[in-house]
Design brief:
The chain is an alpha/beta fold. The protein has a 6-stranded mixed sheet with strand order 3-2-1-4-6-5, sandwiched between helices. Helix 12 runs antiparallel to helix 13. The chain is elongated and about 90 Å long. The two termini are 51 Å apart.
């Protein structure tokens, strides 16, 4: 829901060409309604509430009737959910309210066709007239609304009650309607990634700073992981920017769990990555990132990888191997991370080539590599070390 709200705001902002004024954006979906306050193209507050045109229509208007009692019950139920965000949203304030989605566009069309409001605008008085008209008619069908498409007929009442409750609880006087919403937001988000303006980079940095991650150490881990990746990416079919970014994000987030406890910190890190609100990441991406972070040390997370979708399992396994190896060479947290490690592949065989005599000078790393040799056997990889 949080990610949906972010993308909706992005789509609306680009569709209307927002300036730096503060706006409230509302989108009524089938099962949830998103509320976002933002300045310009940046969303500041996002909430997704479990109420939508389909769910409310099925719950309160299953018989097709729209009596005053049914409408009152539906609006009261919506108001109770909106009460959760009422105070902080009204305190934040906005200069303009914008509505998106089919339900809000449909309500605007009906208000226009019946002369209750101007084109593309919904007012509180227009909503009141529409609600009263629907109650007097006794059903959506009997109301004979001009501007109502047949596909919206069965879900209008629920969506209207959600919208009316939002106007009342949030003190909205007028709302303009946007054609852009989730779909457009998704496209603009992808375009931003192509142009190297990726919301996920900002999200990772914010999470690092929230949990006081040692950024210099995380960067050293990421640099070594990238070096290893570049040597095997083609042969392991990982040569895609998205996969390299995922590896680097895992490196940067691997220690967020230290803010909870040093003991089993990799599990704490995985939990935070899995359950935090990470704008820009899909649930599948977030889950894969969490699995990698969990697998940075100790037992290889084979059973967790196997729970991922089929197309993500092999790439996640291979990225986790690279993360683990990078961790092995950075456990000492030395600021002198200038050792270049060669990684060679031969089928299921992996060979690490180190400078002559290097292992003798780093006995703890040698012990860690011996542990990795055993762990990688679980995924049918044979690791050998040449020094």
């Amino acid at each position: 829901g949080e990610e949906e709200a972010r993308l909706i705001y992005l789509g609306v902002a680009h569709s209307l060409g927002f300036d730096d004024s503060r706006r409230l954006v509302m989108d009524i979906g089938g099962g949830s309604t998103e509320f976002i306050i933002g300045d310009g193209f940046k969303g500041l507050m996002r909430e997704s509430l479990e109420m939508g045109c389909v769910s409310f229509s099925q719950k309160f208007f299953a018989d097709g009737k729209t009596t005053a009692t049914q409408m009152q019950h539906a609006m009261l139920a919506a108001a109770r959910r909106i009460r959760f965000i009422q105070r902080p949203y009204r305190q934040a304030g906005w200069q303009e309210a914008v509505g998106a989605s089919g339900t809000i566009r449909t309500v605007a069309n009906i208000c226009k066709e019946h002369g209750w409001a101007d084109d593309g605008v919904i007012t509180g008085k227009a909503l009141e007239k529409m609600v009263n008209h629907l109650i007097e008619a006794g059903s959506v069908e009997e109301a004979k609304f001009d501007g109502l498409s047949e596909e919206r007929n069965n879900v209008l009442a629920g969506g209207l009650c959600v919208l009316a409750a939002a106007f009342e609880r949030l003190g909205i006087e007028k709302m303009i309607v946007s054609d852009g919403a989730l779909r457009e937001g998704l496209l603009y988000d992808l375009l931003g990634r192509i142009q190297h303006d990726d919301e996920r980079d900002r999200t990772v940095l914010a999470l690092m700073r929230r949990y006081h991650v040692d950024e210099a150490h995380a960067e050293r881990v990421a640099v070594m992981a990238t070096q290893l990746y570049e040597q095997v990416a083609h042969e392991w079919e990982l040569d895609h920017d998205e996969l390299l970014h995922r590896l680097q994000w895992a490196c940067k987030l691997h220690e967020v769990g230290l803010s909870i406890s040093h003991n089993q910190f990799h599990k704490h890190s995985a939990y935070l990555v899995e359950h935090s609100d990470l704008p820009g990441f899909s649930r599948e991406e977030q889950h894969a990132l969490s699995v990698m972070v969990r697998g940075q040390r100790r037992s290889f997370p084979k059973k967790h990888i196997n729970k991922l979708s089929d197309e993500m399992q092999l790439s996640t396994q291979r990225l986790t191997v690279l993360l683990r190896l990078s961790m092995v060479f950075n456990r000492g947290r030395s600021e002198h991370a200038d050792t270049y490690i060669k990684l060679k592949l031969d089928g299921k065989k992996m060979m690490l080539v180190l400078p002559d005599g290097w292992l003798k000078e780093h006995p703890l790393t040698e012990a860690d590599l011996a542990h990795e040799v055993e762990q990688l056997k679980k995924v049918d990889l044979k690791l050998s070390v040449v020094a």
